[in-house]
């Protein structure tokens, strides 16, 4: 019972988004709310897709998120390996440094980042956005991948090395395959973070280069919000994200908590 | 859920043998770093080579702006300086003196702390309750809750904000309509955003709603690692449900709870789009929190120096909470 109540309360906003996406636009702004679409319509999707250029912003978001994830995983993986498999002087400082980066609220950095990109001629460029996103994707990637690497027993590598593998060979043949699920989980999470980012996308990109999240904001105008097409647009954006999430959230949580409980 | 389980199948042995006692193996007095690790015998340059790309990115894209943020907060930096017509001139502590001497600033600080504090407490309590509930419900309810959690977690903040704004809309909002159905209550046309506290309460709900899934999912992962034997032993010794939770579950989960709380503090102090979008990009004075206040000063008034000073004060405010988290993380770093 309690469980179902939780579902109802937590799930209502999501339900409302999908529900509204399919109902006629005038039902969306009816003082008597319609809990089911009276007539089932795809008009809102059409409007979002055709009238308000959907693919441009979504394409840009896709490019930015994918590049951020690929670079983030490649670079983050090396760093995670260094802090979880090597004992070296300064390791602690590096760990604290990487974690400390998470402490700086993004919005606090928006002013200098804006000025920096302005100076570099990267304002309103996708590359500029990609570089800035790396700052919050990277620490997260490093920390989570560390969690996954720690869970792979060192003995496996040592055994491979006894069998004649080099250290690199042992890593590539033994650890890497075991790490794959963790990397997928981390990538998905990083992708979603980049995909959903709003503030930097709003500040660093102009109207014609806006990303999907900012584009959604276009439906909010001075004369009121066009809820129905906005919900249609966000439903289309959210569906793939939710599916990705469903696939990896378990792994994700395991990586995040690894080492926290067991030490 | 089923998909998640299939990926688990080929995963490495995630679970290690449970420690002999709660935390018994935690302080083995093993010197941090140094020998034992197999890596020790490789050249010391290898880890640094591995770290180099990551550190380079972070230093360049974060280190420099951070330095610039500090520098800016001591400068007069407005439109002319931005366009390069004028050199930025140093004004010492003038920016800080101005904001710290401004009553409005302190009101904003207080509002932010109350807002973030409330959001964090609500998030953690609700998150813990739902995580515990998840352990008890039947599999299909559990699956249903998980789907809902993930769906709300994966929803873009701006979409969530738009939906909440609408649920609480004065004329077309579902909530007013629903409350109005209660006998003797007239809520039609009630404007939640007419007053700061009420409006911020709605925004707090939105923040909590968005943050709860992460907390629940992480805590659930943690709960699966609590050794069943310990709970049973406690129960045999006569502990009630609360006792087991208080003296067995909670201590074991403590590291995770500290981590989640600290992250929540950071995130909730840094709430921006929720307030910004909810108030159509122009939060009224009684809706201003530190982030939007700093943003307004910088980009609306074009006073980047003052905006930076406010941002810097925010960072310092966070350092207190961060200290706890840091110690925790260091401990984790050490035992490995």
From TrEMBL, chain A:
Coiled coil: none annotated. Pfam families: BPD_transp_1. The keyword Transmembrane helix applies. InterPro entries: BP-dep_ABC_trans_perm, MetI-like, MetI-like_sf. It is found in: Cell membrane. Residues 58-248 form the ABC transmembrane type-1 domain. It comes from the Bacteria. Its main location: membrane. The chain crosses the membrane at residues 62-81, 93-117, 129-149, 170-192, 227-248. It is a multi-pass membrane protein. Keywords: Cell membrane, Membrane, Transmembrane, Transmembrane helix, Transport. Belongs to the binding-protein-dependent transport system permease family. PANTHER family: INNER MEMBRANE ABC TRANSPORTER PERMEASE PROTEIN YCJP, MALTOSE TRANSPORT SYSTEM PERMEASE-RELATED. This is Carbohydrate ABC transporter permease.
UniProtKB/TrEMBL annotation, chain B:
Keywords: Cell membrane, Membrane, Transmembrane, Transmembrane helix, Transport. The keyword Nucleotide-binding does not apply. It is found in: Cell membrane. The chain crosses the membrane at residues 48-67, 105-132, 144-168, 200-223, 244-267, 304-326. One of its GO terms (biological process) is transmembrane transport. Residues 109-325 form the ABC transmembrane type-1 domain. Residues 30-39 have a biased composition (Low complexity). InterPro entries: MetI-like, MetI-like_sf, UgpAE/MalFG_permease. GO terms for cellular component: plasma membrane. PANTHER family: BLL4140 PROTEIN, DIACETYLCHITOBIOSE UPTAKE SYSTEM PERMEASE PROTEIN DASB. Belongs to the binding-protein-dependent transport system permease family. This is Sugar ABC transporter permease. It comes from Streptomyces kanasensis.
């Amino acid at each position: 019972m309690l469980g179902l109540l939780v579902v109802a309360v937590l799930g209502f906003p999501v339900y409302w988004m999908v529900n509204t996406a399919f109902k006629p636009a005038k039902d969306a702004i009816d003082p008597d709310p319609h809990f089911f679409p009276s007539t089932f319509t795809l008009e809102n999707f059409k409007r979002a897709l055709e009238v308000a250029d959907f693919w441009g912003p979504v394409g840009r978001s896709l490019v930015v998120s994918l590049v951020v994830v690929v670079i983030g995983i490649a670079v983050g993986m090396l760093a995670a390996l260094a802090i979880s498999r090597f004992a070296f002087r300064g390791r602690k400082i590096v760990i604290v440094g990487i974690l400390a980066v998470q402490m700086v609220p993004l919005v606090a950095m928006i002013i200098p980042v804006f000025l920096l990109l302005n100076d570099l001629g990267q304002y309103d460029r996708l590359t500029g956005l990609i570089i800035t996103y790396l700052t919050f994707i990277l620490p997260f990637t490093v920390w989570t991948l560390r969690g996954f690497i720690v869970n792979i027993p060192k003995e496996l590598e040592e055994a491979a090395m006894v069998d004649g593998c080099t250290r690199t060979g042992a890593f590539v043949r033994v650890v890497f395959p075991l790490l794959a699920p963790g990397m997928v989980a981390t990538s998905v999470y990083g992708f979603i973070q980049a995909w959903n980012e709003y503030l930097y996308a709003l500040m660093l990109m102009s109207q014609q280069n806006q990303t999907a999240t900012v584009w959604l904001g276009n439906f909010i105008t001075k004369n009121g919000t066009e809820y129905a097409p906005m919900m249609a647009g966000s439903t289309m954006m959210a569906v793939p994200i939710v599916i990705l999430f469903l696939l990896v959230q378990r792994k994700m949580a395991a990586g995040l908590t690894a080492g926290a409980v067991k030490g | 859920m089923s998909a998640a389980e299939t990926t688990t199948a080929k995963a490495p042995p995630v679970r290690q043998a449970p420690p002999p006692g709660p935390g018994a193996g935690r302080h083995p007095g093993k010197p941090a770093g140094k020998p034992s690790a197999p890596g020790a015998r490789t050249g010391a340059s290898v880890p640094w080579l591995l770290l180099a790309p990551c550190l380079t990115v972070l230093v360049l894209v974060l280190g420099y702006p951070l330095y610039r943020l500090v520098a800016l907060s001591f400068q007069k930096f407005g439109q002319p300086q931005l366009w390069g017509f004028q050199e930025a001139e140093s004004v010492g502590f003038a920016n800080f003196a101005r904001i710290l001497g401004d009553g409005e600033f302190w009101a904003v600080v207080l509002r932010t702390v109350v807002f973030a504090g409330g959001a964090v407490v609500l998030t953690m309590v609700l998150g813990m309750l739902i995580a515990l509930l998840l352990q008890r419900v039947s599999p299909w309810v559990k699956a249903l809750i998980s789907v809902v959690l993930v769906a709300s977690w994966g929803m873009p903040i701006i979409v969530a904000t738009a939906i909440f704004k609408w649920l609480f809309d004065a004329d077309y909002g579902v909530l007013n309509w629903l409350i109005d159905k209660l006998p003797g209550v007239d809520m039609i046309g009630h404007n939640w955003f007419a007053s700061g506290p009420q409006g911020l309460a709605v925004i707090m709900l939105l923040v909590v709603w968005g943050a709860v899934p992460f907390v629940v999912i992480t805590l659930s992962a943690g709960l699966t690692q609590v050794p069943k034997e310990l709970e049973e032993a406690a129960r045999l010794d006569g502990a009630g449900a609360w006792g087991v939770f208080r003296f067995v579950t909670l201590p074991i989960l403590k590291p995770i709870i500290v981590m989640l709380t600290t992250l929540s503090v950071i995130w909730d102090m840094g709430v921006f789009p929720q307030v910004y979008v909810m108030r159509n990009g122009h939060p009224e004075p009684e809706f201003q929190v530190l982030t939007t206040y700093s943003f307004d000063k910088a980009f609306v008034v074009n006073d980047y120096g003052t905006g930076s000073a406010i941002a810097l004060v925010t960072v310092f405010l966070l350092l207190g909470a961060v200290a706890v988290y840091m110690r925790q993380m260091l401990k984790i770093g050490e035992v490995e």
